[in-house]
Specification:
A 5-stranded parallel β-sheet has the order 1-5-4-2-3. It has 6 helices and 5 strands; from the N terminus they run αβαβαβαβαβα. The radius of gyration is 15 Å and the shape is globular. Helices cover 37% and strands 12% of the residues.
């Protein structure tokens, strides 16, 4: 028997419990994909070097460390459903809490992050660095999704 699996299960259950206690709604990748098909937006809060490994098409890319100072760039999404993504689900849960404090009404955490999305066999795209505002790791969107965000940051 693989001892890593029970540990991972316990860890995921613990993260979910903490998120519920903090008012963060988690969804599995399949439910997240359904949200996107229904018009939800995606906010990826990983670091720029992580984006190179693949992103959910149509994502707005603002790292968690920059979110507080750049939240005004996504203020138009305040009343829309926003799927928040990171590598494994912890930073995106923190981002959901920050967004709620900033008046966002429908942020939703992707449980398991981009790892779970990828494991579920869902589409990953690449950053379209050519359409980034200033070319310095602040891309506005990714190729592959007709519902891409407008350019962020001005």
């Amino acid at each position: 028997m693989n001892l890593i699996f029970p540990f991972q299960l316990v860890r995921e259950l613990w993260k979910r419990t903490v998120n519920i206690a903090n008012g963060v709604r988690d969804v599995r990748p399949e439910a997240g994909a359904a949200m996107l098909r229904a018009g939800a937006r995606v906010l990826d809060v990983r670091e720029p070097e992580e984006w190179a490994h693949g992103i959910i098409p149509g994502s707005v890319l603002i790292s968690l460390r920059d979110l507080a100072v750049r939240a005004d760039e996504v203020v138009t999404l305040r009343n829309e459903r926003v799927l928040v993504v990171c590598h494994g689900g912890k930073r995106s849960a923190t981002a959901c809490r920050l967004l709620r404090r900033a008046g966002f009404t429908k942020p939703v955490n992707l449980a398991g992050g981009i790892l779970a999305w990828s494991r579920a066999g869902l589409e990953l795209g690449q950053v379209d660095w050519a359409s980034a505002n200033d070319g310095n790791a602040r891309p506005a969107h990714a190729k592959g999704n007709p519902r891409q965000f407008a350019t962020i940051g001005g």
